[in-house]
Every structure is written in structure tokens, then in C-alpha cells.
Amino acid sequence: MYEKTHRSLLKSISWRIVGTVDTMIISYLITGSIVTTFSIGGIEVFTKMLLYFFHERVWNKINLGKKREFENVVSEG
Q: Is residue 40 within 8 Å of 24, Cβ to Cβ?
């Protein structure tokens, strides 16, 4: 069992929305500058989405904690 590339991409995008909002709130609380807040958020959204995508693809190749599809069929039958 594995995740297809488009699933990893969609997960990357949805997680980055949550993460970027969090980063922007923290940035604003620390700096008090809306310009700095959006600068940090704008850069961060792309770099972390790319990092997360590759992180997911690497973990997709690691079998630790995964079941193969045929194991589910045999154990249910």
C-alpha cells in the first residue's frame, strides 16, 4: 500500500495553509509588522510545502508500520 503522488501534493498544500497561518500569527505577535508578517509567510509557504512533499515521498518508501494490501485480505478472509 502506498500513497500516490497527487495525494502527497494535496496533503502538502492543506498542511501548509494551516502551518502558514500559524507562522504568520506568531510573526505578527513577535514583530508587530504586517509587512514582515506577510514576507515571512510568503516565503515560508513555498519552502515548507516543498520540504513536506519530499518528506512524504521518502516516508512512503519506508515500510515501517505499513501493511501490504494482501495481508488485509488474508486476515479478513
A: yes
Residues 1-14: tens digit of each pLDDT: 677 888 888 887 88
Q: How many domains does the chain have?
A: 1
CA distances (Å), origin 3, targets 9, 10, 49, 59, 71: 10, 11, 17, 10, 17
Cβ-contact 41, 27 below 8 angstroms: yes
pTM of the predicted protein model:
0.60
| Distance of alpha carbon 10 from alpha carbon 57, whole angstroms | 13
List alpha helices for the chain, DSSP H. 5-31, 34-60, 69-76
Q: Please choose, from the candidates 64, 51, 62, 53, the residue with its C-alpha nearest in 3D space to the C-alpha of residue 12.
A: 53
- Cα dihedral sign for 40, 43, 49, 52? negative
**What domain range includes position 45?**
5-76
